Amino acid sequence: xxxxxxxxxxxxxxxxxxxxxxxxxxxxxxxxxxxxxxxxxxxxxxxxxxxxxxxxxxxxxxxxxxxxxxxxxxxxxxxxx
Length: 81
Known about the structure:
- The chain has a 3-stranded antiparallel sheet with strand order 1-3-2.
- A hairpin with a 2-residue loop joins strand 2 and strand 3.
- The relative contact order is 0.16.
- It has 4 helices and 3 strands.
- Mean pLDDT is about 85; it is low at about 1-5 and about 75-80.
- The chain is an alpha+beta fold.
- Helix 1 packs across helix 2.
């Protein structure tokens, strides 16, 4: 039987504070990622799937994406600032 991949926290859904702890990201980046990725809202909490977050980070790593620049300019290079 295959097991579902999970973050170091053992959870399948992460909120920004979990993202911060598990991946060592700043508060600003963790919240921006949680809002940018497919998510569910539970009141004021944003919850993202571990699989979606890890896929995004893998792609960002392959492309050499600067997460801080991505957060500051979500439209990407050449987009409206």
